[in-house]
Write the structure tokens for this entry.
Amino acid sequence: MFHDRNEAARKLAAKLQAYKGKQPLVLAIPRGAVPMAKIIADDLEGSYDVVLVRKLRAPINPELAIGSVDESGWTYIADHAASTGADSAYIEAEKQHQLAVIRQRRAQYTPIRAPEDPAGRVVIVVDDGLATGATMISALHGLRNRKPARLICAVPVAPPDTLNKVAELADEVVCLAAPENFMAVGQFYAYFPQVDDDEVMQILQGS
């Protein structure tokens, strides 16, 4: 159990000390991980930014991810997608909707500068926890194509089966807890408020 995202970020930073001074690029999956990325980057003497990916929502249960899409349009579809009633037409419509959100967020979050270039750098992708891992899978896939020197997934908590999936896409996975009894990320935090766009923009403008 973590008190809040800040505590989780400090504990992750402690596990990532091997990269201190190597100018790592810490990329947050918005919005919850953005404050965490700043804490980790500051501790490791690196820089931080966002990696924009969106989950594809199940037709009846929008909290359930059936896949994800990255900024380039690459799409990951989970094995359980069909069982939720998501046919190809639904998935395409949901993909286009989420791509529109990604474009809006890119314009909103980094309007006056280009995203940080991961090529040749140690890249640490941070989220506040993984459930299905869909968004992390898209993030790692997209970043691998941009030729980082080393690609690391860093999360406070995730179920073991999800960690196995993301491990195939990362050079290293750092996870503080991998409980079998996993219902939702929020159950492992005492304080888990929503992070809003204003907070994200304030943090990114300070990077």
Remarks:
- The chain is about 35% helix and 20% strand.
